[in-house]
Amino acid sequence: MSFERVCALSDIKEPGSLRVELDDIDIAVVRFEGEVYALEDRCSHADVPLTDGDVEEFKGAPTIECFLHGSCFDLRTGEPTNLPATEPVPVYPVRVEGEDVYVDTESDGALPAAASN
């Protein structure tokens, strides 16, 4: 694992998301109910930024909603929780150290990532 500092914790609204542009990928860093998550900032259905959508609970899961068609993605797994999206988005391991948020940018995006605060 290779964690890279992506932002300060205070840069992310609670609840809310922040788009972080890295060399080869855009990541949505999301805060919800005291946890921090990271996933690719791209809806698997509509190819639009997820950070333009709302962060909320949907069917018992912490999610981010695609503003265009309303699909929600589980922040823990990247799995869509409703249609029209059917494919998951990649998620990345997150580590919070004090005020700094780190994401494993070398992860393959296939592993569920929950925050460790």
UniProtKB/TrEMBL annotation:
Record's keyword terms, sorted: 2Fe-2S, Dioxygenase, Iron, Iron-sulfur, Metal-binding, Oxidoreductase
Keyword Electron transport: no
Gene3D superfamilies named among the record's database cross-references: Rieske [2Fe-2S] iron-sulphur domain (2.102.10.10)
GO MF annotation, one: 2 iron, 2 sulfur cluster binding
InterPro entries: Rieske_2Fe-2S, Rieske_2Fe-2S_sf
Record domain Rieske: where: 4-103
Domain of life: Bacteria
Full protein name: 3-phenylpropionate/trans-cinnamate dioxygenase ferredoxin subunit
Species: Blastococcus tunisiensis
